[in-house]
Design goal:
two-stranded parallel ribbon, Methylated-DNA-[protein]-cysteine S-methyltransferase DNA binding domain-containing protein, mainly alpha, MethylDNA_cys_MeTrfase_DNA-bd, 5 helices, 109 residues, WH-like_DNA-bd_sf, 2 strands, MethylDNA_cys_MeTrfase_DNAb, DNA damage
Length: 109
């Protein structure tokens, strides 16, 4: 399941997440048939260059929170990008996954 093209599979999946919705790292891994590889999903997204077409900001942790990243300003950018798409955060900086989580199986995937 995890191999040279795993990152590309992650990118292809994340490109399908609609604007204003999010998925979790674990959800991406499970949908790709590698349910124990959520960390590898994170590594794939971290490997992206600035000139990509992958909406990396639509992937959050299982609590509906933005995970810390490097560079340090990335979480702030991620939040701004999500808010620009209409995603709202609560007072603990969490996204309500029951509202904003994308369910690819409902989209026929």
């Amino acid at each position: 399941m995890i191999g040279p093209n795993f990152y590309e599979r992650v990118y292809d999946f994340v490109r399908q997440v609609p604007r204003g919705q999010v998925v979790t790292y674990g959800q991406v891994a499970a949908c790709l048939g590698a349910p124990r590889s959520s960390r590898a999903v994170g590594y794939a997204l971290r490997a992206l260059t600035a000139d990509n077409d992958v909406p990396w900001h639509r992937v959050v942790n299982h609590r509906g929170q933005i995970s810390p990243r490097y560079p340090a300003e990335s979480p702030m950018l991620q939040r701004l990008l999500l808010e620009d798409e209409g995603v709202r955060f609560d007072t603990q900086s969490r996204i309500d996954l029951s509202v904003y989580r994308w369910h690819p199986e409902e989209a026929g995937m």
